[in-house]
Write a structure and sequence with these properties.
Elements (H helix, E strand, L loop, with lengths): L11 H9 L5 H14 L5 H11 L3 H8 L12 H12 L1
């Protein structure tokens, strides 16, 4: 974690993010479920915002990032996005 406090998991924004993590591609779903199982307790508010940005991508764009077939565009790239993407790729 980056020193920020962990979010309250009863926070409606976090619950919406969990709901949005259910994707149309089974592969994305599996990776995101493993991600939450492994990292949920570590996520800061900054990490949650980075994950929200990643979940704004289409299923295919997200899958390409998760499989390292592509990298985030420079305007989309930030240290928090890179950190969360690294965690997603590690699961």
């Amino acid at each position: 974690m980056d020193g920020m406090s962990s979010p309250h998991y009863s926070d409606p924004r976090y619950e919406r993010l969990r709901w949005r993590s259910r994707r149309g591609l089974l592969e994305n779903d599996l990776i995101l479920e493993r991600f939450f199982s492994r990292y949920e307790h570590m996520l800061s508010h900054v990490d949650i915002e980075a994950l929200r940005q990643l979940l704004e991508l289409s299923d295919n764009e997200l899958m390409n990032l998760l499989l390292s077939d592509s990298e985030p565009s420079t305007q989309f790239f930030s240290p928090p996005v890179a950190r969360v993407l690294g965690w997603l790729r590690a699961v």
